[in-house]
Design brief:
Chain A: InterPro entries: Cyt_c/ubiquinol_Oxase_su3, Cyt_c_oxidase-like_su3, Cyt_c_oxidase_su3-like_sf, Cyt_c_oxidase_su3_a-hlx. Chain A: Keywords: Cell membrane, Membrane, Transmembrane, Transmembrane helix. The complex is a heterodimer. Chain A has a domain at 88-217: Four Helix Bundle (Hemerythrin (Met), subunit A), CATH 1.20.120.80. Chain A starts with 22 loop residues before the first helix and ends with a helix. Chain A is built from six helices and no strands. Chain A has helices at residues 23-60, 71-74, 77-104, 107-137, 146-179, 183-216. In chain B, 85% of the residues lie in helices and 0% in strands. Chain B is flat, with a radius of gyration of 20 Å. The chains are: A mainly alpha, B mainly alpha. At the A-B interface, helix 1, helix 3 and helix 6 of A face helix 1, helix 2 and helix 3 of B.
Amino acid sequence: MAQTVQGKGPSHIGIRLSNAAPASHQEEARSQAEEALFGFWVFLMSDLIIFSMLFVTYATMGHSLAGGPGPHELFDLSSAAWETVALLASSFTCGLATLAMRYDRSVKKTLFWFAITLLLGLAFLSLELHDFMTMAAKGGGPSRSGWLSASWALIGTHGLHVTSGCLWMLIMFAQTARFGLDPLVQTRFMRLALFWHFLDIVWIGIFSIVYLLGVLS
Amino acid sequence: MSDHHEAERRQELHGYVIGLILAVVLSALPFGGVMLGLLPKTSLLWLIAIAALCQVIVHFRFFLHIDLSRSHRDDLQLILFSLLIVALMVGGTLWVLSNQRHMMG
């Protein structure tokens, strides 16, 4: 298949209409996609502020154990390491999915990589759920101390974000089945990919500050 | 598929692979350091902080494609402005609450 219309230089969007579409339509779709992605960046940055405040609340609660169990008793570093592996691998496969969508334009390949991403996301969530249940069983529920409330709020908010990312992926599968990879579906997939990569960045903060520093101190 | 197209694709794939390798190394270092306990505590603190900061930059550069090129200038400005707000809020909270702890404790 010959690509007659190409963007000017590499673009981080790379949404392509069918080859038959005139150049002006391509440009229009591109600028609309740019706008949508920029808007999504604004949302991500407001989400970043929420996470920052949860992180700083956690930091100020560092000593408020109220006689309850602390990070040494409650955290399992190997579980956190596997969660990191799952999320990082899913970020990579998410990248491969966007490449399959933008360059190969193959519905099959795109859905395959997004499905792997979803499975890794679910693996992360089940590990995290297991962590939460272990913590609660050891007497480290969210109401036990200020430190535990802050930990549950921070890790739980991230977990809810990952859950909504998984739901979003399922919705996108349905949309792809219904509409194919049309430009609108493509920009939605691009926003989902941004969201997913962003959650991995928040996780870097969680495993460094909550798990590693917690076990260290 | 044209050659130009194919080259662009390969270049992007290359970026994701480099990002993945760097991220794995930058995660393995602090986890390994803490789990094996080979270093003194202060060095581990620095290792965790520096590895995390580097990994955040790696993710932005290789996965989110934010760099200094002109087409990404708007995104970068938005991110830097948000970081300013975050720094003010985080710094202010730490300052006020540590003062409060000090005076009440």
